[in-house]
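I'll show one example:
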Amino acid sequence: MSPQRWNQLYLVNAYVNGKIAPISDQDLYGEAEHWAYPTDAGDCEDYVLLKKHQLEGLGFSPAALLITVVLDEKNEGHAVLTVTTDAGDYVLDNRYDKVTRWNDTKYKFLKRQSHANPLQWVALVKQPTSNSGFVASGN
């Protein structure tokens, strides 16, 4: 990750966070769950989709941009974008403009897209002695 790439991560995260207003799928679409690229409003997974799309447009590898499911501080489900880098795994979150190392969040990481196949999800097990990331425990 070059300084330019880090800057792109921060800029995309802050831009999307500022452009999209948070709203539930129920309020926006009348459905409990609806995944879409947001134009002006959306929920957490909509932010993730737009950030992933923009970063791929900047040349980031899709295999390094993984939709991730976590439990937040209130033990509620939340989606974030995990970016795997040579310096470890980082989180882009619609709740924070700062790009944060995964283990500096207060989230419990549950599952994310597989590096090999984005249509498959893998459970995550925290590596207790490493800041670098997670071990996928299976599909």
